[in-house]
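Study this chain:
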Amino acid sequence: MDFNGLELHLGNIARLSKAKSRSISAENFTGEKGKGGMSLDGISASCARDLGQGWKVSPAVTLEKGSSFELAHIVGPGIITHMWMTCHPGSWRSLVLRMYWDDEETPSVEVPLGDFFCNGWCERSIVNSAPIAVMSGGGMNSYWQMPFRGSARITIENLGGAIPQFFYQIDYALTDIPADMAYFHAQWRRSNPLGYKDVHTILDGVKGQGHFVGTYMAWQANNDGWWGEGEVKFFLDGDNEFPTICGTGTEDYVGGAWAFEQVEGQGYLPFTSDYLGFHQVSRSNGFSKVNQRFGMYRWHILDPIRFEEEIKVTVQALGWRSEGRYLPLRDDIASVAYWYQSEPHAPYPAFPGKDELEVI
């Protein structure tokens, strides 16, 4: 993972590099060297009226209703090393994050903002993992490596109402990219509700060589009782009816066990760690909340699932019915698949509209 001396983990942090550090934000829209903090006009211009240029004049942007905004347009070669974004949680499902590499026409990343950062329910939830970290106040961070050779373009589309303040920062390095580095991809899907005896498809239609590196699921249980008996399955390179990799249960896939209970009968125990998390458990009691909602993730960073030609990933939704029998569930399941692959990638399914995205 070392290229031109640019090493992105602590083990080699002391090595010198010729890579050039750059950053894009509302205080430097282009990321140009020596061009940060120069704004004379911005959402905080009145706050800085006594201080003038250089004193936090343009820390954020306004996203108008129904608009798209280009967060970054970078000429490469280079690699995005960190992204930070924040706005009001109520808009996290109606903002669509898209990323394009090397002037491609269709995005390699197309995911609602909150779901990309493992917060799909428009309610803040702490995530303390290696590639995704969501901290106090709803500060959302990504450390996924995103290399590009010709260019990188990142946009955000606002399908909801006007957002007065959207904050963001995109940190990257300009450096040569080795030939064997693949491109980052992420795709969102939802089954609401899942059809009876159907499976939720996390990823399908991928063509090319690559490796699958992670899953996030926002899961709403629409029945009483336990909901996570279903298996996660990976169909690789020509698998048909049966997969090459088959898990043993939903909670097992994200590193938990036995219905996520610490003590039997005392409820769920959330957790968040570098590569595994069951970080969000909503409270379903009360006048306006009927069904319980959960957030969970599994990063295949130390154990990537490699494919040469194609990959399909699914999860079952299973609970229990009388006499110790499985009950196929009709839950609301939204997921994000994260993977790397060679380009070009196959086009994604048509992205849903605002009503199909909505948390309801």
About this structure: The two ends are 42 Å apart (CA to CA). The CA atoms of residues 110 and 167 lie 19 Å apart.
